[in-house]
């Protein structure tokens, strides 16, 4: 790190758990953030300000006036622009050192697979089950840690699926697809503005911890927040041996 970096990141370097080595790991890391909305906004803000060196921000949507109540990456004068590009502009203003790639297409199939393969960590900040399951399948395939968040009305949840570990559950172990899940979204149900900030910031915290290699991650636990009562609940989640997505993978990763 040069002198300016030592200053910019000094409050992280001061933390014994992070220090210069941990900060260096962040600078060299690459994170994929899928979704530049309510959850992706605070997540991307903190990854960029904290110096995660390479960010890929993917969102095919454009900024709408109804987003601005909570999607803090975006500004009033950017209504109509791609969220990924608006987000990139905001992040560059906070920390021009971070390389941000803005993807304005819906990340699916081969493109999703390639981005997950290239990432050190993946943050699911999307709002629909089809994309969530596609991201999970790619993370299982490439054994990448997945940080997943969701928020609707006053209810939020955060989970980590550290798929580098053979004993870790995947998203599908917890939320099987194929069931008749009612797709709920903020457009019809509403969402409490600071809730997405809390959940997205928690996703950023878990991602930074995993990238720096510090602390105990949420892997194997699901945190649920009732923001109306301001109560957190935690449930343990285990791997489903019969899971069709991750069931076939070995308990121990191949030696490399
Ligand atoms: Zn699974």
Automatic annotation (TrEMBL):
Keyword terms: Nucleotidyltransferase, Transferase
Domain THIF-type NAD/FAD binding fold per the UniProt entry, residue ranges: 9-245
Matching InterPro entries:
ThiF/MoeB/HesA, ThiF_NAD_FAD-bd, Ubiquitin-activating_enz
Q: Name one Pfam family in it.
A: ThiF
Cite a single GO MF annotation.
nucleotidyltransferase activity
Q: Does the keyword Transferase apply?
A: yes
- Identify this protein by name: Molybdopterin-synthase adenylyltransferase MoeB
Q: What is the primary gene name for this protein?
A: moeB
């Amino acid at each position: 790190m040069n002198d300016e970096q030592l200053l910019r990141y000094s409050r992280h370097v001061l933390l014994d758990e992070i220090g210069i080595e941990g900060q260096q790991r962040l600078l060299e890391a690459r994170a994929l953030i899928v979704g530049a909305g309510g959850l992706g906004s605070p997540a991307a803000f903190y990854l960029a300000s904290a110096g995660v060196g390479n960010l890929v921000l993917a969102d095919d949507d454009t900024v709408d006036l109804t987003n601005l109540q909570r999607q803090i990456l975006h500004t009033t004068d950017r209504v109509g622009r791609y969220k990924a590009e608006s987000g990139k502009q905001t992040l560059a203003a906070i920390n021009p050192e971070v390389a941000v790639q803005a993807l304005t297409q819906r990340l699916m199939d081969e493109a999703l697979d390639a981005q997950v393969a290239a990432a050190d960590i993946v943050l699911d900040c999307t709002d629909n089950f089809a994309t969530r399951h596609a991201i999970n399948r790619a993370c299982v395939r490439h054994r990448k840690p997945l940080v997943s968040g969701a928020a609707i009305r006053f209810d939020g949840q955060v989970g980590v699926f550290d798929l580098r570990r053979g004993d870790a559950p995947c998203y599908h172990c917890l939320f099987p697809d194929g069931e008749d899940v009612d797709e709920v979204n903020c457009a019809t149900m509403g969402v409490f503005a600071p809730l997405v900030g809390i959940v997205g910031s928690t996703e950023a915290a878990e991602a930074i911890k995993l990238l720096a290699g510090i602390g105990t991650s949420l892997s194997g636990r699901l945190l649920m927040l009732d923001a109306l009562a301001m109560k957190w609940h935690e449930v343990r989640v285990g791997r489903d041996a019969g899971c069709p997505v991750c069931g076939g993978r070995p308990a121990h990763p191949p030696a490399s």
